[in-house]
Amino acid sequence: MTVARAEAPERRELPPSMVERMTLILDAFPSRTVRLTLEDVARVTHLPRSTAHRILDQLLKLDWLEHSSFGYSLGSRALQLGGAASDTSELRAVASTHLHSLMLRTGLTVHLAVLDEGRVHYLDKIGARFATSVPSRVGGYAPAHCTALGRAMLAWLAAEEVEERVGSELRAMTGKSVADLQALHHELGRVRSRNGLAIERSECFDDIACVAAAIHAPEGPIAAISLVGDSTTPLERVAPLVVDVARQISLELYPDLGTRRGRTLRSI
């Protein structure tokens, strides 16, 4: 009787330099939303687990990677390299269908925006005839402190970061604008008490009202969506739709959010 011997796994030569090994690990993360465990990294790169762990630790210290309970992901330095931090194509692609559906269900104008220092940067604007009356444009900017979009994101940042972004002197856009830090912090507290729902009426543009909610990553807000109408629009009626759509987009981008312990999307 012949006993078949299991073939030994193919031996792979490890890259000789630390730079090559670091590159192997960074290449294992094809996009900003990918999260890998230590075991995942070792399997994808074929590096010994101990070697992968040591290099991951160095990449964390240098901000090339970030780590949370869901694993490793690209860090701020990796995202900034080559302009990756401003690459919003994946966000826009995932949000697109949801934004169109929200516009059709409400008949209101829909915005998608991200924070850029103390401003909101409009990535998308979808609407019917009323959209032409809203003085915003794709690629344009507006002060974060007096927009529902901005407050929906600022509400989840530390107070010190909020003040660093908006500055100590807040410019009033209309006669109803929040114009000082104390009032802004009070309003951000109201956003948190409403489970992330931000509402403003005629604070950024006269006769324009908005309701917004943030799109979340495990680390915090990455964008926000809003519904826009005139100052008499009963936004409270459509507010639950905004929260629900923001949650759906968050979960499509970051499926692990649905199983988070502690603060979950249900409480955001």
Short description:
With 268 residues, the protein is α+β, with helices and mostly antiparallel strands. It has helices at residues 18-27, 38-45, 49-61, 76-80, 89-106, 148-154, 159-166, 181-193, 235-253, and strands at residues 65-68, 71-74, 109-116, 119-126, 141-143, 198-201, 208-217, 220-230. The chain is 38% helix and 19% strand.
Structure notes:
With 268 residues, this protein is of the alpha+beta class. It folds into two domains: 18-76, Arc Repressor Mutant, subunit A; 86-267, 2-Layer Sandwich (Beta-Lactamase). The protein contains nine helices and eight strands. The protein has helices spanning 18-27, 38-45, 49-61, 76-80, 89-106, 148-154, 159-166, 181-193, 235-253; strands at 65-68, 71-74, 109-116, 119-126, 141-143, 198-201, 208-217, 220-230. It has a six-stranded antiparallel beta sheet with strand order 5-4-3-8-7-6, with helices on both faces. Helix 5 packs antiparallel against helix 9. The termini are far apart.
Question: What are the main properties of this structure?
Answer:
38% helix; six-stranded antiparallel β-sheet; 268 residues; Arc Repressor Mutant, subunit A; 9 helices; alpha+beta; 2 domains; two-stranded antiparallel sheet; disordered N terminus; Beta-Lactamase; 8 strands
**Order of strands across the widest beta sheet?**
5-4-3-8-7-6
Instruction: Supply the helix-strand structural class.
Output: alpha+beta
Quote the CATH topology of the largest domain.
Beta-Lactamase
DSSP summary, beta strand count:
8
Number of helices: 9
Low-confidence stretches: 1-11
- Indicate the CATH class of the largest domain: Alpha Beta
Strand content: 15-25%
CATH superfamily heading of the largest domain: GAF domain
Shape: elongated
Mean pLDDT over all positions? 83
Return the CATH architecture of the largest domain. 2-Layer Sandwich
> Secondary-structure element order, as H and E?
HHHEEHHEEEHHHEEEH
Helix content class: 25-40%
Radius of gyration: 22 Å
Number of domains: 2
Largest sheet report: 6 strands, antiparallel
